[in-house]
Amino acid sequence: MNSLSLQTPTHTLHFHSFIFSKPTPSYISLKPKPSLTTIQCSNTNIIEIDMVKTKQGTYVQKQNKVVVLWDLDNKPPRGPPYDAALSLKTLAETFGHLTDISAYANRHTFTHLPEWVLNQRRERKNLDYLERKGILNPSEPYICSVCGRKCKTNVDLKKHFKQLHERERQKKLNRLNSLKGKKRQKYKERFVSGDSKYNDAVRGILTPKIGYGLASELRRAGVFVKTVEDKPQAADWALKKRMMYSLDRGVDWLFLVSDDSDFSEMLRRAKEANLGTVVVGDVDRALGRHADLWVSWNDVENGEVTEKDLVPKSRERRRTTNATTTTTMDEFGDVLIFHDGKEMEMGEDFMLEYSDNEYFDDDSDDEDFDEEDDGFYIY
């Protein structure tokens, strides 16, 4: 059995009040950071572990702090917002302790009705019409989740809910407005905020007058939602300001849900600060080149992200695959590309991987590359 001996570090030991229990996945490559305590084994293997002191006086392994910034203007949910937010939080928690998840958008994003919401409302309206005319008979009655009353049609359920439960709710709100101080707080916790049956029923029965409940559903999932001014790039400025605040707090991993290339400089600064970055989007292009990891937004929403998708980019691993890419020139002077023995047309989809010390803009018109330059690879 190897004997363990502690080596006293030469730098100052910093203690933190927070404690984490979930370890970072082994398949996530972390950047080296100065250790607070070094444990050395007799077989000359050195393990560097950041330690924190608990309230009991013992030391445990320090978990990474994760922050999620969500650009709702650029990347709104394509399905139920509550489910999308939970899937995003689950992914972020695999990297460490999620300390903050924030979403930013202007007023138009919260009032806009996406196509999938319009389709759902059209289908519901058609079903209500068929049920009211007696053409379609539901196999099971509609049950009110507040009182348990059975209704023949969905229209009857809405009528019952508005005439009974919505009026009772309004009486409670009027009573709440007449109270002050501790009485108001206790009454609110018991009869308004704590009325989970009503809060759950109103989401499934009544249709919001404005929007489709995007902000309320995200807040229910634990997301901090901020409505910015109706100005160009207002959400981008608010998100960048939040990122600078996160950098000052010393986070370890930053999640950015966006495809806006304006955040490229911000990601480069985060990388220079030794901060791990993960971009969640639809296209792995401008932002994906500056991040440590890129994940598909569609896979995150559907909960289809696997461990293989969370492996950071490795140019050497990609270049050593079995498939080979060669180029040649025909008699007309045209360059022909052969990938794994098959000729590729220039219109076909293929992937370019840029070197770490070269940055290319998507909107750049400069296409004069030197043939001997190692700036990009085709595979």
TrEMBL record:
Cross-referenced InterPro entries? Znf_C2H2_type
Q: What is the lineage of its organism?
A: Eukaryota, Viridiplantae, Streptophyta, Embryophyta, Tracheophyta
Organism equals Trifolium subterraneum (Subterranean clover)
Q: Write down the SMART domains for this protein, in alphabetical order.
A: ZnF_C2H2
Keyword Metal-binding attached: yes
Which UniProt key words apply to this protein?
A: Metal-binding, Zinc, Zinc-finger
The residues covered by the C2H2-type domain are 142-170
Q: What is this protein called?
A: C2H2-type domain-containing protein
UniProt keyword annotation of Thylakoid present: no
Q: Name one GO molecular function term.
A: zinc ion binding
